[in-house]
Amino acid sequence: MWRPAVLAVVLAGVIGCGPAAADPQSCTDFGGTVDADQICHSHTTTASYAITLSFPVDYPDGQALMAYLTQRRDQLVDYADKFPLGDRPVPYQLAVSAKEYRSTGTQSVVLRVGEDVGVHPVSSMKAFNYDVRRQAPITFDTFFKPGAFDVIAAAVRRDLASSTQMLPPRGGLDPAAYRNFAITDDAVIFFFDQDQLFGQNEGPLEAAVTRTELAPFLN
User: Fold this and answer.
1) Interatomic CA distance for residues 57 and 67, integer angstroms
2) pLDDT at 15
3) Cα 124 to the center of its chain, rounded Å
4) Per-residue pLDDT averaged across 72-88, rounded?
């Protein structure tokens, strides 16, 4: 279950050379509160926009997480400044919720971003993965060996076909669409923005590929 989203403001400092986790003080500095599950919640509204965000304060690479959230917040604020509401009856909206995943040696955070600045709301996904043992971020290219994409795309297609029953005969062949994923001990879960894969008004979507199937292609 996705945690309820709440607003956002974020900046993280770095002490030393390694990535810095988001800490509870950074949440307090920006008007948020940290709950018992170590999730920061904050909320900001103006006459032009409403921004809500929740994010974990224990993710190891908090600097990267907060930089992304700050960028999304600033983009919405800039948009609201450039394009006044006019006849729009409600403020522009940005809402972000977070879901965490863990495996032996890794930690993942997946953000679901909902934005409404036009005709209809749009949802997108953003994933962060971290190798706790190596103390380094994980990307598609560092986690998977060359040649993995064809296996992943076929497995994702199979999983989506069984769950949505609406998969078109072709689509989902852009490797860039597979960059958002989370790691568990049993599977790698891939997340896709609304309309990202097949040019339909579907999504966001997610599909799981078992670690057993991916084993020959994992670094």
Assistant:
1) 14
2) 30
3) 8
4) 92
79: closest CA among 46, 34, 117, 108? 117
Taking a C-beta distance cutoff of 8 angstroms, is the pair 209, 186 a contact? no
> How much is the pLDDT for 214?
97
pTM score, whole prediction = 0.85
Residue 169 φ then ψ, to 5°: -65, -25
For 31-52, what is the mean pLDDT?
90
Would you list the DSSP string of the chain? Answer: -PPPP----------SSS-----HHHHHHTT-EE-TTSEEEEEEE-SSEEEEEEEETT-TTHHHHHHHHHHHHHHHHHHHHHS--TT-SS-EEEEEEEEEEEETTEEEEEEEEEEESSSS-EEEEEEEEEETTTTEEE-HHHHB-TTHHHHHHHHHHHHHHHHHS---SS----GGGG--EEE-SSEEEEEE-TTTTTSSS---EEEEEEHHHHGGGB-
Pairing status of strand 33-34 against strand 39-45: antiparallel
Nearest to 108 by CA among 203, 29, 25, 187: 187
* Sheet of 187-192, strand order: 181-183, 187-192, 205-210
pLDDT band at 14 (very low <50, low <70, confident <90, very high): very low
